[in-house]
Amino acid sequence: MTASETKTEILRLTREFSRLTHTANRPGNDPDHAPFSPGQTIPYAGRVFMEDEVEAAVSATLDFWLTLGSEGEAMEKELAAFMGVKHSLLVNSGSSANLVAFSALTTHKLPEHKRIRPGDEVITVAAGFPTTVSPIIQCGAVPVFIDAKPLTGNADCALLEAAFSPGKTKAVMMAHALGNPFELITVLEFCKKHDLWLIEDNCDALGCTYTLPLEKAKELGLDHLIKIAEKGEHDIIRIADDFLTAPTGSFGDISTQSFYPPHHLTMGEGGAVNIVRRPPLKTYAESFRDWGRDCWCPSGKDDTCGKRFMWQLGELPEGYDHKYIYSHLGFNLKPLDPQAAIGRVQIRRLPDFIEARKQNWERLRRGLHGLEHVIDFALPTHATEWVPSDADNNFSSDFKWDETGCKSDCSWFGFKITIKEDAPFSRTELAKELDDKKIGNRMLFGGNLVRQPAFVQLRRDKPEGMRVSGELPGADRIMNQTMFLGTYPGLTPEMIDYMVKVIRDFAASKAA
């Protein structure tokens, strides 16, 4: 048997093994998904894959290039095309993506007024995940925390101006919470007014879209998205009825993704930095990702610039090998090529995954309708009210919207609920009940981050290392009252209906 024939047989057996072994990881609407019975664990999130992903991983491993190579290059192009951005760079996690994205804005190669230097301030939101904020501190800048809205989980953008400090504020960096876009129109207006960078942490929000009036998009300089929409060739970026719709992660200057198993697609570990519209940022981000080197040749390739031994930088002698010239204090944050092979298959599944998350959110929301007296349910940003459809089997949300003309279409990372203060049970009591019934649930990550031990210690060790703008009652409410359940594509209807039953039974027992 030849090597090619041997590989073909290995991959055939790989698919058969996966089909027999991983039934619990198939999409929830797949007829071959493992059946569910009450008492089995319902994760809040997890890997959703089929034979194709396992075959791709094994095939790439058999080729044994291992380090980021052809699969990674292809995935970067495919992700950039999906997002409608100039470039995507793969990294080894979403947290690394945030670190690389922020570090890129500290480079000495930027104009001085745009470079983020130690002591400069970056506005962020108090509620969320710590590694949205950590890179700000790790690079010597100062996070300025504003409050969050419990209904959306996102920043209260009316507080941006109060947090602004002339001459010190250089950027806004915050996440689209749980797959719900933050108020992009307000943040973009603020950043344009003050000439600030916008870093979108899109790790929880791949596949979300945001719609705003076309005239406003022109005012905000979103020409890169308008041009794509006018071509009419992109599946997501479009213009209709004088409104522009585009994915979150394509509005700011730079954005980030996570491909950890709970996220919208997975590589096991992994993430990406999206360069939205300023090509030089790719070079800077790539340098920080790849040891800080000045050379941009991919692994295994030499002399892309055509003058490998003709550079003179720093105090090095002229002609020093460009592959070993370092312009930044960088890292090594690349993933592996077999991971990218998995990710490429997952990208093809994204439209189905996104739709499943929306339908799972809707099934939960419809199932828990009537508990509004004890639970505040999340709303998409700019929505004022959830409007259930008339048909019981029509799992499609409708909402009433505010006067801005903007809308959010959420690729929900989770089903967020906030227990009302006068409810006959607490958030913790409900979480324990769900845990007892083996139903996965989580807090909204770190809650109010400024109350986390790491940030309390930062205030003690270096009081000037962070700043809180105003009070944080919304972030405190999220910390004390908010939790979320799963919406990931591996959930079956039976799982969701069981989740609904447990919550409704628990609420009824406490009301009795």
From TrEMBL:
It comes from the Bacteria. GO terms for biological process: polysaccharide biosynthetic process. Signal peptide: none annotated. InterPro entries: DegT/StrS_aminotransferase (IPR000653), PyrdxlP-dep_Trfase (IPR015424), PyrdxlP-dep_Trfase_major (IPR015421), PyrdxlP-dep_Trfase_small (IPR015422). Keywords: Pyridoxal phosphate. One of its GO terms (molecular function) is pyridoxal phosphate binding. SUPFAM superfamilies: PLP-dependent transferases. Pfam families: DegT_DnrJ_EryC1. PANTHER family: DTDP-4-AMINO-4,6-DIDEOXYGALACTOSE TRANSAMINASE (PTHR30244:SF34), TRANSAMINASE (PTHR30244). Belongs to the DegT/DnrJ/EryC1 family. This is Lipopolysaccharide biosynthesis protein RfbH. It comes from Oceaniferula spumae. The lineage of its organism: Bacteria, Pseudomonadati, Verrucomicrobiota, Verrucomicrobiia, Verrucomicrobiales.
